[in-house]
Amino acid sequence: MTLPRRAALGAAILASLFGYAAWLVLHRDLSARAGSALVLRIAHWQTEPGPQRALESAMRAYERLHPGVRLEQIAIPPRGYPAWLRTQLVGGTVPDIVQVGHNVPGLNDLLARYFQPLSELAGEPNPYNRGTPLEGVPLRDTVVDGMGATMVFVQDLQEYYSVPLAMFTVRVFYNRELWRDLLGDRPVPATYRDFLDVCRAVRDHAPRTGDSILPIAGSRTSGWLLLNRMFQTQTQRLDATLSAGSSSAPPAIDLGIRYLRGEWTFRSPGPAAGLDLMQQVSALMQPGFLQLEAGDALFQFLQGRALMILVGSSALSALEENASFPIGIFELPTPEAADPEFGREVLGPKSEASIGAEFPLALARASRHPDLARDFLQYLASQPTNERFAAESGWLPAIVGARVPEEMKPLQPRTDGVAVGFDTRLRSLGPEVLREVLTSSHLLTGPSASPATLAQHLDAVMPAAIRRDLARQSLQRRQGAARLDPAIESHRRLAPHQPASVGKLAHLLESQLDQECAAWWIDRGLRESRQTPRSPR
Amino acid sequence: MTSPSSPRFRLRPVSKDCLLVCLAFAATLINAVPRSAAGSAPAAAEAPDATALREGWRLLGGYLPADAVAAFSRAAGPEAVLGAVLADLGVRGGTGPDLARSRQVLERLADGGEAPAVAARYHLARLHERESRGGEDADAQDHFRRLIESAPASEHGEWTRVREALRLVYAAGDGDLPAAVASAERLSGELSRTESRRNLHLQLALAADRFALPPEVAHRHYALACDLGLARASTRAFVLLRLGDLAVRLDRLPEAAARYQAFVHEFPRDERTPTVRLRLAAVTTPP
Q1: CB of B27 within 8 A of CB of B73?
Q2: Are B159 and A509 an interchain contact pair (Cβ–Cβ within 8 Å)?
Q3: How does pLDDT run across A79-88, given as a tens digit for each residue?
Q4: Do B61 and A501 touch (CB under 8 A)?
Q5: Residue B14 neighbours by CB distance under 10 Å
Q6: How open is the CA angle A279-A282-A286, to the nearest 5 degrees?
Q7: ipTM over 0.90
Q8: Best exposed site among A21, A317, B215, B236 by fewest CB in 10 Å?
Q9: Which among B51, B60, B63, B197 is the top mutation candidate for probing chain A, defined by the most A β-carbons within 10 Å of its own β-carbon?
Q10: Which class for B49: exposed (0-12), middle (13-18), buried (19 or more C-beta within 10 A)?
């Protein structure tokens, strides 16, 4: 008799669990349909407390303005977000508004298929800016970068697909308590030499006290970020030489083609100095830092085992929330032109004026309330709301004129510098170059480290990697150009009837021919490199 | 034995989508191809439905190819077939068997001599190019040549001439480059559309930069493209900068100052603006 009773109990538990799960699923759907409430759902991958709180607060304020509307946010952890989003899109259950980003593979195809173009919205004044200096200004001109970021204005499709709300920079965050203990009243470093002195002082502290503190917590993410920032200071002069007096730096494909032609190598003065500098800086982080995850470095910093960490400004709220000590912020000091060791290749401090607006929110085609969703996006992107959002999230505002809270001022982008040179990834030429750089990192740190050997190694493996990446770039440009054919034919036929198609057609044709000519240029470069052996200078 | 209701025969949502698209596409072909291929005059009731056609093009222009296929299926005539083929390519992304089928339909349209024949030949050539994945394709070249010969002044004809002239510039060996550039330059005088001329000049200027031709060449073409009005703001920013930089090299300092000033005024938040301000100061300060 015991067994059937147990079985019955088990069955009852199972049934009640099933009932609860069913209720949870149905409840959302029924409550969305019941009554007059219009439910708008917003999905993103921001799991930090600051942005979630800021969005929650904006949602509640919008609900107060629009009785009968209910807003829900869904935060999906970043690692699972791409798969989750794809499933929701294909299944037709995608929330009305979703965050998009480069971490979602094949995003341009997904945008074209599952999201609504927002070009019309971008060209209209934002009604929620009434009474502000931005009243009557088209939405795109109210965003600091003119809505020009890649996830916002999609070049391949020549349409705006999202509205951005924030801006991010990269800064050094430091433990104020630890700083005082180790360095007293010493001010934050203004030059690269000051920065090195600070790091050396921290390192010297350990043998004296037996208290092992790292100058900088590094990981494969923050470590490479730091190393590349340094490398870029040393390629400014080479970039200027390669651009032959042009105000624009050579794009990735030109860097690759000119490398294959032997116009520069990793042993040229700039890149060689960059590798030296990278080795010098890598010694400031813990051994084996390139094997660590971003979370490991963050943990070391939060535990008070490292004085500083270099991360994106989006981490501010998470750091403040989790640290038991006050946090200070300063801009990473890099070698200036007067630096005795690394000044020769430097033209000036890095300008951050090109930093685009991020946290792009797109509108799903499957949205049941597209007009309401558009209105909410306008509300979020209004100057007053964006100002409040920035203050509560710890993220820099993306709307022109939105005030930045005093404590966030050190995060603001520097606009008075000059463009930096290329990094070791050659302006993200492609995965093959990146792979070669990453797999060569053992020559950068540790006992066998030697910048000269690294340069030699890179020059041995890069020609093949660059050729493969260039071939991929050529193919992508051809495919991108071919993808525009149906839209171009459509606007050709619509142009006599609707004036908007005339401008659209002009955009598409210019973009298509540009991509095709770039592909022909790459093909020529590849042909030449096969015919003429590379003669490194 | 597997019954039709077994899981093996259940359609997943994606498969249903594909099936619908196939049915709509087939309906369009059944509606239109036999009539147009036979060359019979369509009866009044069978006249192309202009509203459905426009809706189809609107949807296709808005990157909704699956919906466009359905819209084109409601219209009849060769234009609806052309629209359906292009929309179908958009849905499928162009894999082997689909391309072969689309090619056949476009061939019939291109040889049919009716209104969209020129457009059909253009897209037929593009399809051959797509299949060659970047290599030289004799069929594509043949269709482009026939298009240029048969309709040189049409929209597609002019655009093809511009493309071909630029392709030859990039394909030319170092010795043939001046002749290829000169030939492309001559073409500009033969083009009637602003769109074609503007893009030809813009791309010739970029090619002159890439091939390190004398600065006068790049400057001339950038200036012509700029005068004809550039479509994209990012292109205009780039062209203004290049005109300023090239004017400095050509020792035309007042022009350089004007170009840099225009850039700073129009693109105050561009990352290059601080550098351009310095260049502006340098060209406006007396030595």
Answers
A1: yes
A2: yes
A3: 999 999 999 9
A4: yes
A5: 9
A6: 145
A7: no
A8: A21
A9: B63
A10: middle
